[in-house]
Predict the 3D structure of the following.
Amino acid sequence: METKALWKSKTVLFNAAVGILGVLASLGFVPQVHEWVSSHADVVLAGIGALGVGLRLITKGKIVIE
């Protein structure tokens, strides 16, 4: 099986971006985004889940932490 570094993984990068954006949204740096995400949490979570599954389906290789 093909291996790749952690930072070359689309899934890892996507999850890191979601985490960073989640922290920024929760801190309220952009009030409109904070309000929208708070009132549409179901849509946000469904979208994140769908994108995560989609990335997993197209991901190739095993991640190696070096």
